[in-house]
Amino acid sequence: xxxEIKLVASPEFxxxxxxxxxxxxxxKEANSKQWQYGHPTKELVMNEIKNQKLRGIxxxxxxxxIAAFSLVPDxxxxxxxxxxxxxxxxxxxxxxxxxxxxEYRKLGxxxxxxxxAYRVAKENNLISVRADTYKMNKIMQHIFSEEGFQYCGIIxxxxxxxxxxxxxxxxxx
Length: 173
Hints:
Elements: E1 3-7, H1 13-29, H2 42-50, E2 54-59, E3 62-70, E4 92-100, H3 109-123, E5 128-133, H4 138-146, E6 150-156, E7 165-172
Parallel strand pairs: 4-5
Antiparallel strand pairs: 1-2, 2-3, 3-4, 5-7, 6-7
């Protein structure tokens, strides 16, 4: 099995968005409201590709996992309730739009994308990685815990209006 991690290219948009749809269905089956109201949109995923934020893990040449890395502060992370971030800085990488193609679940690919996030953050002199997930997304909460992230409080996504509250997590590198 050959594994490659690289930026997702525009011609791969349909495969990337199908992975989002797989994730949306998986969350629905788990009774999570996350991603059930149209977000992430096709436009968001296309912009993540265009702005070179969307990375993919390719297994034997097949796009199997996607995740967006942002090196600029996330405006949704300005307000945090019932807790606080581990760091009081804007020097963090944010992970969004993490999803795995259904045929590639349970292969441990998320560990590889997190390792890539840590590498990119350090390469850009960032001191932590932040992420968020919906309160019913027990799978991501477990992954964050396994990766050494700490729960920090509740954030509110500014680009969503329905079920926009999320658990915020951070890991200091």
